[in-house]
């Protein structure tokens, strides 16, 4: 407890009925910290008012006014004591100055004294955020240096116990810039330092902590932690890709029309409209393309004939839905395998040969 300076005071004489009141202007100032325990000493009121302790009880020494619920005076000692719990924030909100006016009365002669009790703040409130967290949607194309404003915390305490700064959990992409315009206007912004890549990290979870000026600061309560969840929005920065540049297939020329041959799908690291949306097959005489949600297939539209064409090369293109559109290609090389679909044929209908009549067995002409 801390007692302020006691100044000389002017005394005014008031006439009321047959009594003469002397009114002392409020020049006695005491200080007490909020949340002080009942019974704690505020100050020696009798001594500071220059009253004889021995006569306090008989002269009806007491305090009065609307703030007596917080204080009481011991008439045997003249000591002013804390009577009830004092909550500075409830009394004065976030006003820098917080004090209570109290009156003391003593009879024979009747005197009225006024004095002031300053309520000092303690660090009994932790900073808190009004909402537990936010979700920020950030495009992966954001440039380093871009700023993202974060919500402010609130602290019911004032002065040295109010919010003095913010801390951001360690990460490789963002730093924290705190603008200090005084405790009422302190704000925090995240500043992008390293380019984002949704394909590597689609969600970044960070924690913002508000720090007050207490020693130690009240910054361990979960209410002081603000969850920042960054959802990295996709941009069309990846092209569709096939696992191989060349797909080789062996198909017998006896394959029936309508037969289907599976092709491995292309992959696109992007999502949504920026992912693979459709396929195109180079125009040819034998195959068309069938695509559904689960597979890509070549469909034999016209039968193959190895004797006419032993090999085919087809170009398959995968396209995404981004703007501008990206694509990826693969070459499908088809080797047509022979089938026993032709009987032996002589090159001419009649062959003639002449042999001497005396030719020996096994003679070849």
Automatic annotation (TrEMBL):
Recorded hits in InterPro entries, A to Z, give: Cadherin-like_dom (IPR002126), Cadherin-like_sf (IPR015919), Cadherin_CS (IPR020894), Cadherin_N (IPR013164), Protocadherin/Cadherin-CA (IPR050174)
Q: Which Pfam families match?
A: Cadherin, Cadherin_2
Q: Which Gene3D superfamilies match?
A: Cadherins
Q: Which GO terms describe its molecular function?
A: calcium ion binding
Query: Where's the Cadherin domain?
Result: 24-129, 138-242, 243-346
Determine the domain of life of the protein's source. Answer: Eukaryota
* Bilayer topology term: Single-pass type I membrane protein
Which stretch is the leader sequence? 1-26
GO terms in the biological process aspect are: anatomical structure morphogenesis; homophilic cell adhesion via plasma membrane adhesion molecules
Give the SMART domains listed for this entry: CA
Q: Which GO terms describe its cellular component?
A: plasma membrane
**Where in or outside the cell is it found?**
Cell membrane
Which keywords does UniProt give here? Calcium, Cell adhesion, Cell membrane, Glycoprotein, Membrane, Repeat, Signal, Transmembrane, Transmembrane helix
What this protein is called in its record is Cadherin domain-containing protein
């Amino acid at each position: 407890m801390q007692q302020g300076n006691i100044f000389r005071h002017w005394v005014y004489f008031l006439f009321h009925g047959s009594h003469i009141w002397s009114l002392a202007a409020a020049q006695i100032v005491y200080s007490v910290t909020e949340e002080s325990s009942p019974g704690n000493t505020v100050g020696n009121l009798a001594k500071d008012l220059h009253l004889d302790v021995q006569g306090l009880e008989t002269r009806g020494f007491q305090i009065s006014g609307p703030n007596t619920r917080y204080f009481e005076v011991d008439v045997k000692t003249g000591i002013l004591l804390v009577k009830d719990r004092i909550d500075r924030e409830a009394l004065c909100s976030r006003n820098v100055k917080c004090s209570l006016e109290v009156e003391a009365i003593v009879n024979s002669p009747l005197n009225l004294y006024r004095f002031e009790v300053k309520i000092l703040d303690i660090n009994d409130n932790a900073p808190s955020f009004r909402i537990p967290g936010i979700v920020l949607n950030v495009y992966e194309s954001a440039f380093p240096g871009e700023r993202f404003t974060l919500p402010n915390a609130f602290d019911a305490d004032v002065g040295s116990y109010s919010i003095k700064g913010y801390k951001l959990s360690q990460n490789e992409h963002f730093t924290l810039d705190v603008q200090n315009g005084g405790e009422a206007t302190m704000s925090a912004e995240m500043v992008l330092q390293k380019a984002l890549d949704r394909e590597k990290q689609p969600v970044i979870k960070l924690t913002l902590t508000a720090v007050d000026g207490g020693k130690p600061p009240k910054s361990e309560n979960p209410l002081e932690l603000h969850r920042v969840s960054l959802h990295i929005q996709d941009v069309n920065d990846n092209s569709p890709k096939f696992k191989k540049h060349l797909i080789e297939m062996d198909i017998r020329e006896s394959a029936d029309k309508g037969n289907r041959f599976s092709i491995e799908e292309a992959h696109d690291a992007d999502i949504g409209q920026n992912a693979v949306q459709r396929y195109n097959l180079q125009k040819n005489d034998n195959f068309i393309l069938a695509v559904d949600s689960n597979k890509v297939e070549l469909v034999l539209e016209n039968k193959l004939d190895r004797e006419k064409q032993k090999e085919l090369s087809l170009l398959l293109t995968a396209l995404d839905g981004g703007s501008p559109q990206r694509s990826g290609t693969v070459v499908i090389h088809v080797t047509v395998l022979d089938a026993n679909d032709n009987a032996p044929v002589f090159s001419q209908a009649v062959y003639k040969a002449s042999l001497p009549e005396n030719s020996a067995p096994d003679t070849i002409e």
